[in-house]
Every structure is written in C-alpha cells, then in structure tokens.
Design a protein that fits this description.
Number of strands of chain A: 13
Shape of chain A: flat
Helix content of chain A: 40-55%
Number of strands of chain B: 9
Largest sheet of chain A: 6 strands, mixed
Number of domains of chain A: 3
Radius of gyration of chain B: 26 Å
Strand order of the largest sheet of chain B: 6-7-8-9
Largest interface: A-B, 65 and 99 residues
Strand content of chain A: 15-25%
CATH class of the largest domain in chain A: Alpha Beta
Largest sheet of chain B: 4 strands, mixed
Strand order of the largest sheet of chain A: 10-9-8-11-12-13
Number of helices of chain A: 14
Number of helices of chain B: 22
CATH topology of the largest domain in chain A: Rossmann fold
Order of helices and strands of chain A: EHHEEEHEHHEHHHEEHEEHHEHEHEH
Shape of chain B: globular
Structural class of chain A: alpha/beta
Distance between the termini of chain A: 64 Å
Radius of gyration of chain A: 39 Å
Helix content of chain B: 40-55%
Distance between the termini of chain B: 83 Å
Oligomer: heterodimer
Chain lengths: 428, 504
C-alpha cells in the first residue's frame, strides 16, 4: 500500500531560517568579506548580491576523532602487484591513502575557503551595517524601482472589479451577429419569397406555400434567439500594467582630492560616501552617469579604477577640479536634461589662496545648475580655510549645499539626511 | 507470458509512478520483502536541498549548522560541482521516500525499487533499527523537539540555545549507549514526562552536590571512591543527568540531541548492509519486471547504466578513489551470498558449510535481520569476493619508517583481510573510545574524561575545541587524559588550559 504525494508546491524556503542563523553567526566574517568585495567592485556594480568567501576554519564543528599517528591497518581494493610483506615509502600528501583519515572525520583534507552566495538585499544590509542608517532609509535604498499603474487596453481575463461593461456588451453583440449570420441570410431569402407570393393572386396552393414559409421563418427566428445574449467569451476587462516610475536622467560627479595627504583609508571612506550617493540616485533615477574628477594641482577626468587606486603626490588646488566640473557640465550635461549631483571628498587641504576662488566658482557656476552638492571632509585634524569658506557657501545656499566632517564611516549618513528629508517632503 | 510494457517514454506521470509502484510492490511481496507502507513524495531540487540541510529529515529544529550545509549545497549544486541524490528515504512508519522531479521514469522506478522496497524492508527488519529506533514515533518526536527548542529560543534567547546546541552537537557521537539496550522513544510519553523529569532531575542533582564536607571526616579514605563508580560511555547522558549548573530546559535540549543521535546510530553501523541490500533488491526487482515484459530494453539500458555507476569501485591508485564504496561492497556481498546458496563451489562448502546450497531468500533475510556491517563482513565476506575486488591490507605504523602490505587475496590472507575490513567498520575502532572517568565530587567538581587508546592512535586536533564545549555544559574544569593500555598517560588536555609547569 503506497501513498503518492506531490510536494512540489509546498514551500521551498524551509531552510531560510537556518540560513539566516548561519549569516547571523558569521556576521563578522561576512561583513569583512563584503567590505573586501566593496574594494574590488565598481560603484555602479554595488547594487547586486554575489559570492562571498569566508575562511572555512571558523565554520567547522569540532568532533572528537583520531589524529595522525599510531598503528592503523586499512583495506584497499584493486591490488595489482603487491605481495604480502612488501614495504614502501609513505605516499606524500596522502595520495593513495585518501581514505586514511577521511572516514573518521567528516571534513576531508585540503580545507579551502567556504564560499556561498548572498542576494542583493543581504549584500546591502551587510554594507550598510556600521553606516548608522535609519531603518526607513535602509529600506528605501534596498527597495527596487517604484511602479505606477497604467491602463493598457483590454484583456479577456481579470477580476470582476475591472470588468468593462461597454466593451463586453459590444463583444457580445458582435458575436451574436457573427453566429446568427447564416440564419439571417436564410430568413431574408425566405421573406423575399414570401413577399413575392403575397403579391400574387390568392389561391389554395399559394396560401399553403405561404404558411410553410412562415413556419420556416419562425423556427429560424427561434434558432437565432437561442444564441446567448452574453457569454464568458465576451467579457472584457480593463488591463492595468505596472510601469516603472518615469524618471529622468541623472549625472553624479565624484570629486576627490588625490594629493599625497589622502591615504588609502581616507579613500575607502570616501568610496563609501560615493556608493551611498550612487545607490540613492539609482532609486530615484532610471539612468545615471557617473563622472570621476580627481585633482591635485591639476584636475583630470578619469575612470573609476584610476580614481580610487592610482596615487599622486603634490600640492592641492581644489578650484582646478571645480573648474573642470563646471566645464563638463556646460559641455555635456545641459540642465534641462539632467539632474545633477556633485559629491566632493577631501581631507581639507587646499592651497591658501585658492579657497576663496572655490567658493566663488561654486556660487556662480556650479550651484545654480546642480540639485545637490555634498562635501565631506575626512580628517582627524583641525579644519582649514577651505572648510571655513565652504561654511559661508553653505549659509548662502542651505538648500543645495551640504557639508559634513567625517572621522569614520558612521558619520557619512548625516550628509544624506537632508537629501532624504527633501525627498519625503516632495513625495508628500 | 509477456505483458506489454508499462511505459516507453522518459517522462513520468503520477499514474505511471502508481503503476510501477504497484508492479514492483507485487514482485517484492512475491520475494517475501516485508515493508512499512510507503509514502512517496515528489519534490523539486530546491526541496531536495532543504532535505539535505536538515540531515534528510522532513523537519528539524533550527540551527546555524543546517544553514551552513544548505548554502554550501546550494552553491555547489548551482555551479554544477555536485549532483543531488535521486532520492532520500526516511526510517519512519509510513516510510517516507522523496523522489526528485527531474528524474526520468526509469530513474523513478529504480528509486522506488531501491528506497521504497529495499531500504524500507531493511529499516523494518534489521535488529539494530528495531532496537534503537521507533519508526512510528520519529516524526512526532521531531515535531516535539522543534517546538520545544523554538519555545526555549523565545524564552531564553537564540544565543543561549545556540551555544547549548553547539556543545551538544560536538558530543553527538558520544550520546549513545553502545551496549545497553535503549528504551524506545515515543513523543506522547516524552511530552508528559518532561515536567516530571525536570523536577526530579533538579532534586536529584541538588542532593548529589549537597556535600558540605564534615571536618572530622577522614578525607583520604573517601576520596578514593570515584564517581561514577564505573566509567560512563554515554557522555551526553551523564551530562544530562549530572551536570551541576544546567537549567531543566537545558537538560531537555541535551536529551533531544542525544535521542536524535541515538536514532541515527543504526544508520552509521549498517551503511554497507543497508545500501547493499537496497542495490541488490532494485537489481533483482527490475530484472524481474524485465523478465515479465513490463519494461523494455531502453528502460533496462538506462537502469543498468546508473546501476553500474552507483556500484563502481575505483581502485586504490585511481584519482577518484575515496575509500571503499559501501554500495559496491554491500551489493557484491549480497549477490555473492545468493551465488553461494545457488551455485556453491567446493571452496564455499569449506568456508560456509551452513549456508552453501541453502535457500537464498531465507539466508539473505537472515543476514539482513541479524547483523551490522562489522559482523556481516566478518561472517559473509567470501574468498571469491576478496579475489574479485583484489583486496589487500596495509599497515601504517607511525613507529615504522615504511608502510607494509600485511595481506593480499591469497590463501593465507583471506582471513586476515576479512578481519581487518570488519574492524574498519567497527564504530568502536573508528571513533576514539572516550568515557567519563571521574568527578571530583568533594573538591573542585572537575570532570575527568579518559581516552582509552587503541593501537596508540592519538586524538585529533579538534580535541581542545570539543573540550571547551564540554566545559560549557559542565560548568567546571574539564580534563581529558589519553591512557595507553599499560595505564600510562600519553597526553592530557585541560579546559581551561593549565599552565605548563603545573603539568609536570
């Protein structure tokens, strides 16, 4: 006696809790791995899950088992040339004796790293960990594109509340006409004969014929009426489709000081800052371009790799970068087509005479064009003249210009607070 | 008289599965296989991975190690580094067998013959399963365990429960009584007895530790008596009953781990027999189907292809070699027993006077019921099969500079190889023999475990870690000594670690 059950429709996520427990337990290692992979990934690539590798050593469960040594006797299959009493050297690395220890412990030799996949949401979750993002913001960042519903014609299937009465009746009418076509042709034909007969003189023979014709017409009429007034087939429903919120294009400028004083760790913090801004923009705009501008005494537009990882030395003239940015804006990103965001990261160093020029460039050439300009100063030391100049700019343009002093990654978020505030206001 | 084949294509349907199951079941009954009723469940590959992750059970309590297993399986499966098993079968009543959706009709039939009639009858017949497990209760017990542990997590926090489970899992292999026959577990009674047991345990332990030493007593005399008076092999049991600091719910969780370890204990000891039995019967049953004309040549070709890859044994110098394939050994031994019964040679009469020429069905049935891997090999491995597999044994003695071939498939070697191979499947040899030796009841309450060394084999590198887990459970100092048969201490481990100086 057997029962056969189809379990395929049962829930598949039975292991979800255990998987979460595993991620929870190795949070530290996974976070570390995620951080490593942030370094390797490009900003625009940050938005995916991916493979994570953590050292296997920490994840094994210890068991009591025999170690190497002592006297062991093992039986092997497939003898070819050995005879009793043959002696030979121990194979190196357990080549022929793979079974030697493998049986006692469930972990074989050759332990490598333990790799597995995490999805986009988890990846971002680990990345945001430590950035002190409020939950709502986290959610906003992790949410995928927002949708708007649109009418898109009619379908033959749908829920009753979407029934379109006019279309349904029209379809029913058309069907009735189509199905009763041959009957009506015949009726018309018969009626013609009837009229012809009626015009002729009245005789017995004629009245009999008329009577027969009338009978025929009557049955055909009944046939015609048997066609249902409305059928399942006629029903039409309003079709509503979800489309991504139409969002326009945005361009994000990343400006960074790469002079000798910017260490790699400062650049890592800056990278987080740029990533966050990028992710925020991806939630709001469909198409995003990223422009990387780096500068020491000269500014240059570069690709991401060079932006983060090539080293330069020399002095610092911030205005060079702002000038270049203004030029690029003028040339390639007309204000009418683009939402423009600029993020600048620096350690606060600038050549003394240059700061004033910077604030002037900002107020005159850049701020009128951009949606938002965020400046972060990553330093442990005292502020220098650039900060003071920028503070004035901030007072003049509090809506567009944000600045923040950052000592570690947790400080990045406040820069975004205002950005999100504005967004919620706009949405409400 | 030939009948028309049941099906000819590769696609399966539920009707076809039913038809195959009916025919295979009929033939199995003709051969005298006694089975639990079958519950055949068709699942997807994702569900199969879920089943993998929870040690093959239909449900289990939550633990990170199952999650780890899952992500690993998922990763390797998605990258194509491993295939999934065609089936999983659970020792329960009714016997639950999972069939993968992706299998062809032939594979489904093979799996039905293998799991639903092969393994199933083994679960029902073998003495180890009968004494150690209660097939009708296991699913209920797991439901109870899952619920109880979830409750504990709610009450005491996930971390508390997790560290307790970690510690208990580390000792899972030492949670069984090897020699004492256990009482079968039933979920109903368990639930009723939980409260009673908690109360009793707590009182009992209080009494045990209620030992304020009297001043005028002669300490030296009383200290000689050890507690426990005999070494205790079931470490988890001892901890459950005696650990001074555990809360009642913690004792219950230790008990759950111990009970589940006990449930799996027979499977570890009968791998060769169990798989061999199932392979033998799928081979026999499907051939019978073919003889009756119920399946066609194409079916048989596909079946034989997967059958022969399952029972393939790479030789020791093959890069794919990873120990003796239990399927090969078991299957060949079963076939060999049938051969000895049906076509005995003079050699067989000499080696197996009691079974040579007997009824093969009765002999196999007897073998299936009354043995475990170790004794099965010891009893039934024939010289014929040793020659066929070209078995040889190698002694690896760390005191000798070289390895030595101690026996090959010749007249003088047969017995030795048989003994060595049987010993290889003796759990007592495979796992270090560690027992609870002493508790310092009157002093610092430290727990001393003793490792009785076998063939001078030392303990592995995980030992310190496991000791930490024992320390978590016990709550006081834990010591472990490796003792040679001459009663000399070869190595000792301590948690918390002792200063080197103190040791000597």
């Amino acid at each position: 006696m057997s029962y056969i059950i189809d379990r395929r429709l049962n829930s598949k996520k039975k292991s979800a809790v255990n998987r979460q427990r595993f991620l929870r337990r190795y949070k530290k290692q996974i976070k570390h791995a995620v951080e490593e992979s942030i370094k390797k990934r490009s900003i625009q690539d940050m938005d995916r899950g991916g493979e994570i590798t953590i050292p296997r050593k920490g994840t094994s469960e210890p068991m009591l088992h025999h170690g190497q040594g002592g006297k062991q006797t093992r039986v092997y299959p497939g003898n070819k040339e050995f005879d009793t009493g043959d002696e030979f050297q121990r194979p190196q690395g357990g080549g022929g004796g793979g079974a030697g220890q493998g049986q006692a412990s469930n972990q074989g030799e050759g332990e490598d790293d333990f790799s597995f996949s995490i999805n986009q949401e988890e990846f971002l979750d680990f990345m945001f960990d430590g950035l002190e993002l409020p939950y709502l913001v986290k959610k906003q960042l992790m949410d995928t594109t927002q949708f708007e519903t649109h009418r898109a014609g009619f379908t033959q299937a749908g829920s009753p509340d979407k029934l379109n009465i006019v279309r349904s009746l029209r379809a029913a009418h058309a069907r009735r006409i189509a199905l009763s076509g041959s009957d009506r042709d015949e009726i018309r034909e018969l009626k013609k004969q009837l009229w012809a007969l009626e015009k002729e003189s009245i005789s017995d023979e004629n009245s009999q014929k008329i009577h027969a014709l009338q009978e025929q017409i009557k049955t055909l009429d009944i046939n015609k009426k048997r066609i249902p007034f409305i059928d399942d087939f006629d029903l039409r429903y309003n079709n509503i489709v979800k489309t991504p919120v139409p969002s326009s294009k945005a361009v994000m400028f990343c400006i960074m000081d790469v002079s000798g004083s910017m260490t790699q760790s400062i650049k890592e913090i800056a990278k987080r800052f740029f990533i966050l801004l990028y992710l925020f923009l991806t939630r709001n705009y469909k198409q995003i371009e990223v422009v990387f501008v780096r500068h020491h005494t000269h500014a240059k537009e570069v690709d991401e790799e060079e932006f983060f990882y090539s080293r330069e030395t020399g002095g610092t003239i911030v205005s060079s970068a702002l000038e270049l940015t203004a030029d690029i804006l003028q040339e390639r990103y007309p204000r009418s087509d683009w939402n423009i965001y600029v993020a600048q990261a620096s350690d606060g160093d600038n050549w003394d005479g240059d700061s004033q020029r910077c604030s002037k460039l900002l107020s005159e050439k850049i701020l009128p064009l951009v949606q938002y300009y965020a400046y972060v100063e990553i330093t442990n030391g005292p502020h220098q003249n650039l900060w003071n100049e920028y503070q004035e700019t901030h007072q003049q343009h509090p809506e567009q210009f944000a600045m923040q002093h950052i000592e570690d990654v947790a400080d990045i978020f406040p820069v975004f607070r205002r950005l999100f505030e504005r967004k919620t206001k706009g949405a409400a | 008289m030939k009948k028309p084949p049941i099906s000819t294509g590769a696609e399966w349907t539920f009707e076809l599965i039913e038809a195959y199951d009916r025919e295979i079941g009929r033939i199995a009954a003709d051969f005298g296989l006694d089975t639990y009723p079958n519950q055949i469940e068709v699942i997807t590959s994702e569900q199969m991975m879920d089943a993998y992750a929870s040690v093959g059970m239909p449900l289990n309590y939550h633990h990170w190690s199952y999650g780890k297993q899952f992500v690993e399986t998922e990763q390797r499966y998605k990258r194509g580094q491993m295939g999934l098993a065609y089936e999983i079968v659970i020792n329960s009543n009714p016997c639950i067998a999972y069939l993968m959706e992706e299998n062809t009709m032939t594979m489904q039939a093979l799996v039905i013959a293998h799991a639903c009639y092969g393994h199933n009858s083994f679960f029902k017949g073998n003495y180890l399963f009968q004494t150690w497990t209660d097939a009708s209760a296991i699913v209920d017990y797991l439901v109870f365990a899952k619920r109880y542990i979830a409750q504990c997590e709610e009450r005491h926090g996930i971390d508390e429960v997790e560290s307790l489970l970690d510690a208990s899992h580390a000792l899972m292999n030492y949670g069984v009584n090897r020699y004492l026959r256990p009482k079968p577990l039933t979920a109903e009674e368990e639930k009723e007895r939980v409260n009673a047991r908690e109360e009793y345990n707590q009182r009992h332990i209080n009494q045990l530790w209620n030992t304020i030493p009297k001043k005028d007593e002669d300490d030296t005399a009383t200290q000689q008596a050890r507690y426990p008076s005999e070494p205790e092999e079931n470490i988890l049991y001892f901890i459950e009953k005696n650990a001074p600091l555990l809360e009642p719910w913690q004792r219950e969780i230790v008990r759950i781990v111990r009970k589940i370890a006990q449930y799996f204990y027979p499977q570890k000891q009968t791998q060769v027999m169990n798989e061999g039995w199932a392979c033998f019967w799928h081979h026999t049953l499907l051939h019978q189907l073919y003889d009756e004309g119920l399946v066609n040549d194409g079916f048989m070709m596909e079946f034989l292809h997967s059958h022969s890859s399952v029972v393939y044994q790479p030789s020791f110098d093959n890069p794919h070699f990873s120990g003796i394939n239990p399927y090969t050994l078991g299957y060949n031994m079963m076939q060999d027993i049938r051969r000895i019964c049906e076509k005995p040679t003079p050699e067989d009469y000499e080696w197996f006077p009691d079974i040579a020429g007997s009824n093969w069905q009765e002999t196999l049935d007897h073998a299936m019921r009354n043995f475990k891997d170790e004794s099965f090999i010891q009893q039934f491995l024939s010289p014929h099969l040793i020659r066929e597999l070209k078995l040889f044994s190698i002694v690896d003695d760390s005191e000798q500079p070289v390895l030595k071939v101690s026996a090959i498939h010749n007249e003088t070697g047969y017995r030795k190889i048989r003994e060595e191979l049987a010993a290889q499947y003796n759990l007592g040899n495979r796992e270090p023999n560690i027992q609870i030796y002493d508790v310092d009841v009157r002093g610092n309450r430290s727990l001393t475990l003793r490792h009785f060394m076998h063939n001078k084999q030392p303990l592995g590198e995980d030992t310190e870690e496991v000791l930490k887990h024992i320390h978590t459970l016990w709550g006081f100092d834990v010591h472990l000594e490796s003792v040679t048969p001459e009663k000399a201490t070869a190595a000792s481990f301590h948690c918390p670690p002792k200063e080197k100086l103190e040791l000597y």
